[in-house]
Amino acid sequence: MNYPPTRTEAVVDTLHGVPVPDPYRWLEDERSPEVQAWMRAQDAFTREHLARAPGRDALRRRFTELFYVESVSAPAVRGERYFYVRTHKDKEKAVLYWREGEKGEERVLLDPNTWSADGTVSLGLWSPSWDGRKLAFTRKPNAADEAILHVLDVDSGTWSEVDVIPGAKYASPSWTPDNASFYYEWLPTDPSIPVAERPGYTELRLHRLGTPPDADPVVHPRTGDPKTFLSGHVSRDGQYLFVYVTRGWSENDIWWKRVGEKDFRLLVKGEGAKYSLDVWRDTFYVLTDEGAPRQRVFRVEPERPGRADWRELVPEDSVASLQGLHIVGGHLALEYLQEATTRVRLLTLTGEPVRDVALPGVGAASNLYGLEDRDEAWFVFSSFVTPPQVYKTSVSTGRVETWARVDLPLEPERYTVEQAFCRSKDGTRVPVFLVHRRDLKRDGDRPVLLTGYGGFNISLLPSFRASIFPWLDAGGVYAVANLRGGGEYGTAWHEAGRLHRKQNVFDDFHAVAEFLVRERYTRPGRLAISGGSNGGLLVGAAMTQRPELYGAVVCQVPLLDMVRYHLFGSGKTWIPEYGTADNPSDFQVIHAYSPYHHVRSGTAYPSLLMMAADHDDRVDPLHARKFVAAVQGAGSPAPALLRIEANAGHGGSDQVAKAIESSVDLYAFLSSALGVTWAP
């Protein structure tokens, strides 16, 4: 491979007595003209290489059929107004609509397709007031996390010129019942504040419509700790205000007060446990994993908020993991996972079982969307072979009907989904979903695309992924591994894959790969792996630990230099998940698996496609640059390619055309690496 040249420097840090070479440290500085030139050269080299891959036209045609779709989201109901997002076959971005009544005339509220000539400004979150007459929403340049908060009048569609609030990266507006104010999280935009320190500057503020945001009172001050997240919300009746101080993905504190009181008081201190709550009719409903790895629910009376007075309402389930709680139609709606598939249960507010919501099949469903005092509710269901469908249900009767459906040019009966289990290095039982054509022959030579995540208590569910169908039609297998570090089996599953136990995640992934080879689905040369963000760390570690086990690697917006990750982007907020190289015992573990530090010269690595985004303000793209430089410098004969998506953030671009081109490049790369032929 005639790569663009990359120089090295003799940079060596000594950490806790251990020399740590870092020859590509200079690639960390994205503002450097040299780094910019290097990025342009690498991206051009990659695109030229991928342009020669066979089958691109067939892939583009198929992805165009699958990605440009007509779809409708579940609605948010405020008063008699319905707000929802619709995608169109002829538009790049989803459009926000509203109706007066469920059957009212559909009206455009926000169309981000019109916001910029190049489509680089995106709609972030949106939150209607309780009467449905105002809407708070964020605009995000380059689909990044940084955002500006705006307010519009729903009836006229007019954007307020006063209610414009920068620093809305973490903002989630919580409206007061008078519809004239909202609480929100505010982050200073002062460029002198180091990026990695900014999370600790988050404040909870109160904005009154029509007043200058600069005068918004601070309701709760910043924590000053960049390892924490601060968030807050007000109860629907406006009586109670809550503040969450969250440390990582395993514990948080909740503070509360009655609106009008001066000081917050501590409801619960999270010491190795996490808590969330809903409020209805002067009662707190607390969901927690305290003393219950699969979570349980407590009822708390505000007059007696002490921990000793909490009453267990829903005990921990013996097999299913409780994922979320909503109050809908005067009932508790509880979302569970059992063997990584969804169950939704309804209980009374006093904890008596009512029914399981009738789901249309085995797959991934949302919890119920709705209001505490209205009988109608909605949920979204999909499976690996069923596109997302929106269903309406009656909380009181259990009736379920289709509210909105997606039709795609698919024949679901051609495919099958199975769940298999294997044993990890330490004997832990690890599940994996396998999707393939019904006529698949297990001849040990099928191309397999294996993905996973394994971190941050995030669960990978058997949900729809349009991009996999060309792969399936070409005779491939799509595999999703549910690894430790995720939330599929509750807190204990997460804890078993974080901090000093992170190697368990990689061992689980290797075990699934070995299972796929042993059971004659594939062989190492035809086994591809993919992962993004923390999943990018996963496949980076898999590639450097077991290069002989994998034939191709797609690594997206990853963390890979684990020794220095906490110095950039949102890295310090992840210290509770990974640890930090500043700590001697953490360093020993992190350095042992950090992918960037384990690239070895003369090793035959699998083909690598690194997919980065130029405006990723969550995981700094330096990880992608340094790792690709290291693999190229190691002299491996297989390609090591860096593709950089322009005007895109951590989640990529939200333009359909760009998603199609990204998917074409990804699967064209797999075609070249594994010898896959695409159906015409």
Automatic annotation (TrEMBL):
Q: Which GO terms describe its cellular component?
A: cytosol
- GO process annotations (BP): proteolysis
How is this protein named in the record? prolyl oligopeptidase
Which PANTHER family is this protein grouped with? PROLYL ENDOPEPTIDASE
The family this protein is said to belong to: Belongs to the peptidase S9A family.
Peptidase S9 prolyl oligopeptidase catalytic domain ranges (all copies): 462-675
The enzyme's first-digit EC class, named in words, is: hydrolase
Give the reaction(s) catalysed: Hydrolysis of Pro-|-Xaa >> Ala-|-Xaa in oligopeptides
Q: Where is the Peptidase S9A N-terminal domain?
A: 6-404
GO MF terms held by the record: oligopeptidase activity; serine-type endopeptidase activity
InterPro entries in UniProt: AB_hydrolase_fold, Pept_S9A_N, Peptidase_S9_cat, Peptidase_S9A, Prolyl_oligopep/macrocyclase
Keyword set for this entry? Hydrolase, Protease, Serine protease
- What is the organism field in this record? Cystobacter fuscus (strain ATCC 25194 / DSM 2262 / NBRC 100088 / M29)
Q: Recite the lineage of the species.
A: Bacteria, Pseudomonadati, Myxococcota, Myxococcia, Myxococcales
Gene3D superfamilies of this UniProt entry? alpha/beta hydrolase, Prolyl oligopeptidase, N-terminal domain
Q: What is its EC number?
A: 3.4.21.26
